[in-house]
Amino acid sequence: MLMKTSKITEILSIKTREGKNGKLYYHSLKLENGETISLGKKKENAFTVGQEISYTETVDDKGKKKRSEEKKSYGVGGISNKQIAAIGAAILTAGGKSDFKTSADTILNWLEA
Predict the structure, then answer these.
(1) Where are the alpha helices (DSSP H) in the chain?
(2) CA-to-CA distance for 81 and 110, rounded, in angstroms?
(3) 8 Å CB contact between 28 and 36
(4) Among 52, 64, 95, 98, which residue carries the largest CB count within 10 Å?
């Protein structure tokens, strides 16, 4: 299994297929790294030119390459949204529960993102 990341340079075609869970749209995409791949999505306009995608490439028993888009992972127990973290840091500082330097760093990280 090989993980790759590249930007979409062109959407070559979109084919619709009816599946057991409804319609699927298979997007044929030309990527900045020179590859042309096909990914299935439930939305017809799921991809845009210039969008960066991460995908996994595997090879089946017959030697055929299969690619699937990497799903975004959500961490357990941590705040992933920087804006919420910045607001939380400000509240903790105002309540005297956190020192100003730590909160300022958190807020600065959010502003720079």
Answers:
(1) 82-94, 100-112
(2) 9
(3) yes
(4) 98
Beta partners for 69? 55
How is residue 13 written in tokens? 């075609």
**Statement to judge: residues 14 and 49 lie in one domain:** yes
Residues recorded for the chain: 113
One domain for residues 46 and 98: no
CA distance 81 to 72: 13
CA–CA separation, 99 vs 92, rounded Å? 8
List average pLDDT for each run of 10 residues in the chain, which is 113 residues long: 89 92 92 93 92 88 83 57 71 73 69 67
- What is the domain count for the chain? 2
Question: What separation in angstroms does the CA of 15 have from each of 9, 39, 57, 87?
Answer: 18, 10, 21, 44
- The one-letter amino acid at 105: D
- Residue 105 and residue 64 share a domain: no
Residue range of the domain that includes 95:
82-112
- Residue 92 domain-assigned? yes
